[in-house]
What we know:
Layout: E1 2-4, E2 50-51, E3 64-69, H1 73-88, E4 92-93, E5 102-107, H2 112-131, E6 136-141, H3 142-147, H4 150-154, E7 160-162, H5 170-178, E8 183-185, E9 208-212, E10 214-215, H6 226-230, E11 234-235, H7 238-250, E12 255-259, E13 267-269, E14 276-278, H8 279-287, E15 294-298, H9 307-315, E16 322-324, H10 332-337, H11 344-357, E17 362-369, H12 376-389, E18 393-398, H13 406-410, H14 417-442, E19 446-454, E20 461-465, E21 471-475, E22 485-493, E23 497-503
Parallel strand pairs: 1-18, 3-4, 3-5, 5-6, 6-7, 7-8, 9-12, 12-15, 16-17, 17-18, 21-23
Antiparallel strand pairs: 2-3, 10-11, 13-14, 19-20, 19-22, 20-21, 22-23
The structure holds 5'-deoxyadenosine and iron/sulfur cluster.
Amino acid sequence: MVASHGDNFDMTNCHSVFYFNFAISKTSFPVYYKSEENSHQMLDEHLQGTAIQSVDDKSSNGRRFYLESYGCQMNFSDSEIVASILADEGMGPTRQIEEADIILINTCSIREKAEESIRKRLKEFRIYKKRKPELLVGVLGCMAERLKSKFLEEEQLVDLVAGPDAYRDLPGLLRKAEDGDRGINVFLSREETYADISPMRLDENGVTAFISIMRGCDNMCSFCVVPFTRGRERSRSSYTILAEARDLFERGYREVTLLGQNVDSYKWQNPETGEVTNFAQLLDMVAALDTGLRVRFSTSHPKDITDEVLYTMASRNNICKYIHLPVQSGSSRILELMNRTYDRDWYLGRIEAIRRIIPDCAVSSDIIAGFCTETELDHQETLSIMELADYSMSYMFHYSERPGTPAAKKLKDDVDMETKKRRLNEIIRLQNQISHRHNQRDVGMVYEVLIEGNSKRSEDMFKGRNSQNKMVVFDKKPGLKAGDYVRVKIDNSSSATLHGNIVA
Ligand code: 5AD
Ligand code: SF4
């Protein structure tokens, strides 16, 4: 399975709403949200710009917002929080931009191309504002945080700007904007986790959902803009995470993905007892809710993933045997320049531990081609680590310098674009071969698959994932529905999908 975002959109890859009772469920708004070929952590290109679907008039006071999301899964998860905050103000989502009173765009800054696409999209909104001058346009997310008031200066069209930690202020910013005051809140918080907000579920299938367990990032990888756009790392209370997972299970969901920029450094201290919960313990607690609830997580950092996490994964059937463990580069010299704080041997040691403790675990990666000073030899080391790690899939990019990052400040972006693209293509080609081999090995195997819904290709077929996060397509059998588990024997595979038949 291969997802490349070298030149296109980049993936990788949420006022005071205080109710702690997650049993209060909000209307869920189906969105064509996941393809048969995308991973849980990042979104496919065609999902970029997905807007929240329309809701019945009953839940809205007549005012409607159109919310379009770009970027990583974390951003889509934030959009579910934004939708919930606005719904609490009586506003309803629409997918028809023409009927919107407010257009919101949740943005991504990870690579230059991502920002360019969003700028283009903003220009397209001008026409709607011309037709309806009272229409408000708001920019949310990472680009809002990165560019701050520059957005208001550069884009006359924009009425409000809200960074990832400012979504509780959206109703206030909207009221101001209605009075003609263009508003901005890009304050980054050390505490905000939106822990008490029950996200409005945007996934279409009612079977799989994402739970944000932490925000921000303290890692300071030299290429990455995230620490600047999403601020300091903070973990959400384990109680609210468990309550959200339990509520989802009771509503029929059968799989949750615990989301964070670096889940392995999850650490929450109970303010009353002083007791600290780490990621392995959290994972175990969520999995202990019910054996019928699958648990996934993303993203792991090679420096932080502990044997305790691996043993926890091995000990419970319902913790999926899949780890997204971005390597970025196979060269220790480049890893040092990237400030990844591990080297090639450390990474391979973690792969070895995964194989030893969880033999049936699939591992996937993020890879950057053409980082500053990268030589042909460094590139060859990336290709060789891909072979050694035997990734089931990878997200592959060429390096894109981001203003303000340590790399932009200290290193020269000296690999020319042609070389970056050539190396990226070699990486993609190799990953294709490795994924193909991976899928071939699955032929003849029987996997437990959680049915997510109809296959895109045929109404007569279901699609679902195995524990290793591979999409499996198979003929329907009467009596089965989305949310059921079935055992499927794999007959053949295409580049990104396994095909099989239900066995008794
Ligand atoms: N250029 C290219 N790719 C990047 N990533 C993050 N920053 C950059 C950048 N400046 C990639 C990394 C990360 C993924 C989310 O995006 O591989 O793991
Ligand atoms: Fe996600 Fe923001 Fe990073 Fe884009 S820049 S991938 S939206 S955290």
